[in-house]
Design goal:
The chain has six helices and 22 strands. It is α+β, with helices and mostly antiparallel strands. Strands 1, 5, 6, 9, 12 and 14 form a six-stranded antiparallel β-sheet that branches. Strands 2, 7, 8, 10, 11 and 13 form a six-stranded antiparallel β-sheet that branches. Strands 3-4 form a two-stranded antiparallel sheet.
C-alpha cells in the first residue's frame, strides 16, 4: 500500500466526517409541548402579559405553528414554533423570548435556523442573543430588559412576507469554552407586528484546530519528499473544512519541508554503504528431514559459521554475486534495517564497441566478468540479451 496515498485519503475522509461537527442541538418543533422537558424556556415580557401568558387577549406565549398562516419549512405543516402580536395586550409592545437548552459554547459554533416573517404591512422583528451564564434563563422582566443575554445578531426585520429563509449565525468573542444558551426574541413596537415562525434550529460543535495534526501524529512521524508534499497539499485543499481550522504551515526546513505547529517532520536517514557491520544478521537452517527453514541449533550455527565464505572471497555462495575486495555482507545504518553488499565491477554490465576488420563498429553488452575475455577475443562470444550488432 502506498502510505502517502493512504494518508491523503484518510485526512480527506476525516475532514468531511460528521464526528468533527457533531450536533449539540437539533429541534424541528414537531410538538412544542415537549420543549420544556428538554430544557427550552419561554419568557414573555410583553406589555400586559402575566407569567408568560397574555392576560387580555388570551393567546399563549410561543405556540405550535399554524398552517392557516403558512406551512413549516420542513416536516408536517404545523411543525414550527410561532409568535404573534397577540403576545401583548391590544396596542401593546411585544418582547417574547425563546431560549434553547443549556449548551457547550465555543468560538466558531453556528446557530442554524429557518425564519419566516409574515409582515403584511406590520413590522416583525426577531433578534438573536446568547448567554455564557450556564443554565441561567434570566432575561429580566421588562419589555426592554435582556438580563444575562448579549445580542449576537441584530433584528431580522420585515413588513412583508419573507418566506422561509435559512440563517447561520456564528458565535465569536468568547474568552474561552463555556456553557450557556442561545435565544430568539420576537419584538415589536407598540401596536405593531403580525406573525413569525421559527423552524429547524440546530447548533453544531466546532472541530478542534489541530484535529488533522493530531491524527497524523497518532499515525507516526512521516517522511515526505517535495513531490509528496505537493500531494498532501492537494489533499488539504480538498479537505477545506479541516484545513481552515489548522494553522498555516511554514516552509522552513531543507528540501522545502513544511513545519507545522505541534508536529515534527523528519527525513528518513539515507543508506550508508560504508557503515561498520553490527551483528551476524539472520541465519536460517533448512531441516533435512522436514525441508522447513528453522532457527539453527548451537551446533548447526557453529557448522554454518565454519562453512561461511571468507570476507576476501570473490563470491558470496548465497547469491552468486561478487563482493568487493575486503568487503562483506553488512547491515546498513537505517532504522528499517537491511543487509547490503559492496560489489565490484564484475557484477556490472558494460557496453563495448569494437571495430571489425572491415571497419564496421560493433556494439556488445557484456557482463563485467567477461569484459576482459571479450576485449581479447572480440565479439565471438555468445550473444547477450539486449546486445546490438
Amino acid at each position: 500500500m502506498n502510505l502517502n496515498k493512504y494518508l491523503i485519503g484518510l485526512v480527506a475522509t476525516v475532514a468531511t466526517s460528521s464526528v468533527f461537527a457533531s450536533p449539540l442541538l437539533n429541534e424541528g418543533f414537531n410538538d412544542i409541548s415537549t420543549l420544556g422537558a428538554s430544557g427550552w424556556v419561554m419568557t414573555n415580557n410583553s406589555t400586559g402579559s402575566v407569567g408568560g401568558v397574555n392576560n387580555v387577549i388570551g393567546s399563549s406565549n410561543w405556540f405550535q405553528g399554524d398552517s392557516g398562516y403558512f406551512s413549516a419549512a420542513s416536516g408536517p405543516a404545523n411543525s414550527y414554533i410561532a409568535a404573534d402580536y397577540t403576545n401583548a395586550t391590544f396596542g401593546g409592545t411585544v418582547s417574547n423570548w425563546l431560549l434553547t437548552p443549556e449548551l457547550a459554547l465555543s468560538n466558531g459554533e453556528k446557530l442554524n435556523f429557518s425564519l419566516r416573517l409574515l409582515g403584511q404591512g406590520f413590522t416583525d422583528n426577531v433578534e438573536v442573543y446568547y448567554s455564557t451564564h450556564g443554565a441561567s434563563a434570566n432575561v429580566g422582566s421588562t419589555i426592554s430588559s435582556v438580563g444575562d443575554f448579549v445580542l449576537l445578531h441584530p433584528a431580522f426585520t420585515s413588513n412583508t412576507d419573507t418566506g422561509w429563509v435559512n440563517y447561520s449565525v456564528p458565535l465569536s468573542g468568547l474568552s474561552g469554552d463555556t456553557t450557556g444558551r442561545f435565544a430568539f426574541r420576537y419584538v415589536t413596537a407598540a401596536g405593531d407586528g403580525n406573525f413569525v415562525g421559527i423552524d429547524s434550529v440546530s447548533v453544531s460543535a466546532v472541530p478542534e484546530p489541530t484535529a488533522a495534526l493530531m491524527l497524523l501524529l497518532g499515525l507516526g512521524v512521516v517522511a515526505v519528499s517535495r513531490k509528496k508534499l505537493r500531494l498532501l497539499a492537494l489533499a488539504g485543499l480538498s479537505a477545506s473544512t479541516l484545513v481552515a481550522q489548522a494553522a498555516e504551515p511554514q516552509i522552513t526546513g531543507p528540501n522545502g519541508l513544511m513545519s507545522f505547529p505541534n508536529a515534527r517532520v523528519v527525513v528518513q536517514p539515507e543508506l550508508n554503504g560504508s557503515a561498520t557491520p553490527t551483528g551476524n544478521g539472520m541465519v536460517a537452517y533448512k531441516d533435512a528431514a522436514t525441508g522447513k527453514l528453522v532457527g539453527p541449533s548451537a551446533e548447526q550455527a557453529a557448522e554454518l559459521a565454519a562453512a561461511a565464505v571468507p570476507a576476501s572471497s570473490a563470491k558470496l555462495v548465497a547469491s552468486g554475486a561478487r563482493v568487493k575486495a575486503g568487503g562483506r555482507a553488512a547491515p546498513l545504518t537505517t532504522s528499517r534495517g537491511g543487509v547490503g553488499l559492496a560489489l565490484d565491477d564484475s557484477t556490472a554490465s558494460f557496453a563495448v564497441v569494437q571495430k571489425d576488420a572491415d571497419g564496421k563498429l560493433i556494439e556488445s553488452c557484456v557482463p563485467g566478468e567477461d569484459v576482459a575475455h571479450h576485449l581479447a577475443h572480440g565479439h565471438s562470444l555468445p550473444a547477450v540479451q539486449g546486445e546490438k550488432q
